[in-house]
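Sharing a chain and its predicted structure for anyone who wants a worked example. Both blocks are below, sequence first, tokens second.
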Amino acid sequence: MSRRVSRRYPAELRERAVRMVAEVHSVAKAVNSTNIQLALTTPEC
């Protein structure tokens, strides 16, 4: 049975990681929106 190991990361590192994920999500939404406008993909339900 595997055991989870809890690791503490510095607050600054966690905050940076959260910002990076939010930025990637934002960029992905923008690319998807542009693709839909250019009729390269269809909107997903």
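Comments welcome. The longest helix spans residues 11-37.
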